[in-house]
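Reviewers of the previous submission asked for a worked example of the structure-prediction workflow described in the proposal, so we include one complete record here. The input consisted solely of the amino acid sequence. No template or homolog information was supplied to the procedure at any stage.
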Amino acid sequence: MTTAQPHPLCHPTTGRPRTAAPAAPADAARRPDVTAVPKALWPVRAVTAALLRHALHRLPLRVRLDGETTFGLGGPLLDVHDARAFHARLGTRGLIGFGESYMAGEWDAPDLVGALTVLAAHAAELIPAPLQRLRGLWAVRQPAAQRNTPDGARDNIGRHYDLSNDLFALFLDDTLTYSSALFRTFPARWPLLAAAQQRKIDRLLDLAGVQPGTRLLEIGTGWGELALRAAARGAHVTSLTLSQEQRELALDRVAKAGLADRVRVELCDYREARGTYDAVVSVEMIEAVGAEFWPVYFRTLDERLAPGGRAALQAITMPHERMLAARATHTWIQKYVFPGGLIPSTEAVEQTVRDHTGLTVTARDGFGAHYAETLRLWRERFTERAGDVGALGFDETFRRLWTFYLAYSEAGFRSGYLDVQQYLLTKEDPAR
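From that input alone, the workflow returned the following structure tokens.
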């Protein structure tokens, strides 16, 4: 394994290597909030059961409790095997408890995406308005330890992206691209996923005006596919990542492609980047930045771009009012999948760019339906290769966690609750 060394373009304190996480997470005993049902008095469970019935009985969903009581207007089945535990988790931990209950096997859904899509489509209506107004009193707050400071961001990224390169390779296509693809036709098919990912990347490179000789900064390397395609165009690429596992594999891919003279992959926080570039590209990185650091992120794009430069971003977005309601709340996704993450709204992106930079949002294009199909293909592949996931040392609780994560995300895009955008930001050249 290579050892990452600080690069002159990076601040030395954030360019240092970090120790990668073990390849396989430990068993469910390391997830005490899943293995132990929280203690909840009868009134808490009873009120939760009443609120649940009130919220769901008018939805196109069927909810079955303990194999007997069923309510809802019909549709996908949410089959609760242990109603007492289910209500205790929801009553004490809200939506975090809902996900933990699935991880614990206390409920299932034959059509998990279908059931979650119904819930996502009615997310704003599930909690009564009086309780919504008191959200600050009952909602779990984001832990201070997950703030995306330079050290915090490194730890947050490592918890997800340093799980195991072999794990991600099991369900991603050969490009190892972990963001929305761009398809020509629906429904999407697995054999066409790699081409759809390259189409998305090429569109971003076109937006950024990447051509022979372009000095390109990439914020968020992934496993290197965008850097490879940019270098193949003749660009000189500096790519920044906080994942040591990703960096090592990206460097290996760059070397095998014979492009090491055009691509640098640095273990470096975006805040510590140095130099001037003709173009910046960043794909689904802003979701890991955190709202308090959005101004810093966009100022970094502005500061690193040369006059007349262009930045192409791909970003997941959510409705502005839901983002405002959720920005201080700790969610299941943050607890188990993306610590410290927050999905912005299009309004938040455009306001931050306007208020904190000299950049201009020149173009924006949404294509959320493509992400739903991308996630479906990943989810199906993950399910098909569950045995291989287990062989890597990932236990059943982890597999249920990731099944829920992929289905939950797909449902967000299918319902329209989530979208994904490609942005073009431009910087004026005073000399022109």
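The chain has two domains: 38-103+109-138, 145-427. We consider this example representative of the routine output the project will generate in years two and three.
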